[in-house]
Amino acid sequence: MSSPFSSSSTTSSSIDPMAASSGSCVYYGPWEYDVFLCFRGETRGSFTSHVMAALSDKKIRTFIDTMLGKGESIAELLSVLKRSAVSVIIFSERFADSPWCLDEVATISRSMKEFGHRVIPVFYNVDPSEVDGDTGSYAAMIEKHSGGRYGDPKVKLKWRDALKEIVDKAGLTSHEIRLDSQLIKAIVDNVLKELINMSPSLEPKNLVGIDSRVWEVERLLDVNRSDDIRIVGLWGMPGIGKTTLARALYRRLTNLSKEDGYNNAKWKGQRDGLEGLQKELYSNLLSEQDQNITSRDLETSYRRARLFRLKVFIVLDDVEVLSQLESLLLGDVLNLTKLFALGSRIIVTTRNRKVLEVAMARIYHVEQLSPQESLRLFSMYSFRQETPPTSRRYQSVTAVGYCQGNPLALRVLGCTLFRKSESYWQSFLDGLRKNPKREIHDVLRRSYDELGGDEKRMFLDIACFFRRNYSKSHLIKMMACSYYSAYSRVEDLIDKALLIYDELIVEVHDLLHEMAWNIISEESDLGNRSRLENAEDVRKLLTARKGARATEGINLDLSKAEEMHLGSDAFLGMDRLRFLKFSWPDSSSSSSKNNLSKSGLDSLPHELRMLWWDGFPSSSLPSNFSPNSLVELCIRHSPLAQCWDGVQDFVNLRWFDLSYCANLIIVPDLSKATHLESLKLTGCKTIVELPSFVEYLDKLTLLDLGACENLEILPPKLDSKHLKHVLVVEDCRAFRRLPSSIGNLKSLEVLALIGAAIRMLPSSVQELDQLRTLDLTNCKMLESIPGAISRLDRLSQLYLLGCESLRSLPELPLNVKLLVASNCKSLQTVSSNNFSKLHFLNLNLVGCLQLDRKLLRRMLAKLPLQDVSQRTQVCTYIYI
């Protein structure tokens, strides 16, 4: 865990602009000295010595006149002032007795005019009116000076003018702040305030996208509220910019004005473990830097009472586990109102979302940069400008695409390519995925190294085989066949930012995907690697049989592979193989690039959880294949004619896809696949009838029969309570009748009968209570729609495009928002009692000569249109 950084203030006293600490680090500006201290010798051993000590305690570099040799020139003094940020002038009773002190004042005044030098006047035991060079005691002392240049009227005039100018500035007086300790504190506070205001911004110019993120977190912090204590968590994957954002917030919020209630910035550098962090944090908060505070000391009622009066702003960076947060907050994570004053704010950065959830924190997900922000950040490191030169734009976009919005990766790559030749760029980018930058890899790997053994294996499985477009539910069910407590473990990987969860889909960031394969390549030589994706490595494994017993998964992108000849025993001995995936990125591709011996495969591993083989080059699966462990089977664009004989005990099978297996004669018997959720037979042109076992698949959520050109009927008894998403019977030109049992599909949300030869819908469609989309596009034989369709309260989208035989459109449900009814050539009547929620209307009137135009006008009058009467005479399309 990295260091905390903090500031605090008591709620009952004035607020320090910067917290004190012997271990603090003040950010210096371009000057050599922070303070030039001007004073008369009469206060050297008393008040001034205490001021010097207080400045020193704050690590403020102070120049005093003893550092100048006797008789140094005004030019030398002016040089010192130019190298100093602020002058503190301590005016005392006998100050004007010293011509040297008066020279210093005159030179300081000159510096104010010439280069904006800052001055803090302090009136110690002397009234400001006495310091005025024209009247009062100082005027009298000036007149007494004589001899040499000190008697010159012009010199005395300069002294007087300088005193007048400085006295006019607001200063600190001992008459108003009577205690020396309080006056000294005020001096130090004012010095720090000036230094901070003068300091150049430490906000790096290449913090791309930081402003909007700071603003969003500030909304969560809501520092203007003082009736609560808040923890705000910055959560995200490694390298995403959590610490950078925390630093920007700290600089922003600790530079607020005093009334905002926080001290100004300091960043601690303690790295002595958790106990050291705790000591540093509370030593600074309690201003007890000289005390060796232990955890036990913090339990005393005295120190707890002092903490309770503190309004704090603390940032705890890189918290890994809850115990760290509990230790740093003295065990009171859920009861901070007993630890600090109301209005306190605590920022925690972490890769572990669970820490923040347990602490009841408001969570801000630090997301990846947008492509535009990424290109800008990369360009600032690689070209020192905000956009790449035209000649390097393509290569820059390639590099940015590799980084996937991760600021760490963008910075590392940008720095690596800075001032490199075009040839170097091309060579570097060509080999980047094979030889990633170690600096990126090491940061990303920290989260992985913190996982337990099974969690590491699960992460590698997901990163290597399920990195894109898998639902969280799908992923959990797949992992449950290999690991206990799959649900909680997938949740933990999401919480630790190793997986991205967004709108039901779980993905793996490209850099983490790459890291996973690097970890695998490092675990052993090729012969003992658990997972393979490199085409040449896969070829060696399957043809030379090298490393078969160690292999748990193969993921081969066929678009990147050369043609490979597989023997009948290619998978013999792969007893641990759980995932086998030969896939085309474009699912419409049909080339297999795998040639089998004429006898086909002798066997497939019985431990397979996923068998995905696009273009599987055989007419059948091995006769001895026992798919008891199989969760997903996907064989697309294959000459497969049949899978197996008889009934298989598919106790774990959930997803089954034989899309575009044009030679498939028999749909395999899946009657024992009682957990099957998805059945896809798209493009299986030879299927005439769907087997009756479908009636008993109670968990089925998707049935896709699209482009089954010869499909004629569905099973007469459809009764799935779970077929909730989609029933697709698309481009099934021989399909003439929807069974009346369709009404039993109580959970169905989408019914697509595109291009079917049906003449009517059964009245039972009114029982589809959850139906949201009904797509009858190009049902050219469809003559009527049952009036009972108006009872489908959830129906929002109705597609009737190309229903050339449709004669009437009944009253629609109230919630219809989208109606597409173009090219309905036989349409005569339209019922339109209520189109109040219709958002989009497409009526192609070309050739619709039978449609009553007066009826159309009455219908359109009920639509939320303006100037309808002017538009209907000429419109062929109407968009609302």
UniProtKB/TrEMBL annotation:
UniProt keyword annotation of Lipid metabolism present: no
Biological process according to GO: defense response; signal transduction
Gene3D superfamilies with a match to the protein in the record: Helical domain of apoptotic protease-activating factors, P-loop containing nucleotide triphosphate hydrolases, Ribonuclease Inhibitor, Toll/interleukin-1 receptor homology (TIR) domain
Record domain TIR: where: 31-195
InterPro entries: Apaf_helical, Disease_R_plants, LRR_dom_sf, NB-ARC, P-loop_NTPase, TIR_dom, Toll_tir_struct_dom_sf, WHD_ROQ1-like
Keyword DNA repair tagged: no
Keywords of the record: Leucine-rich repeat, NAD, Repeat
Molecular function GO terms recorded: ADP binding
Pfam families: NB-ARC, TIR, WHD_ROQ1
Protein name: TIR domain-containing protein
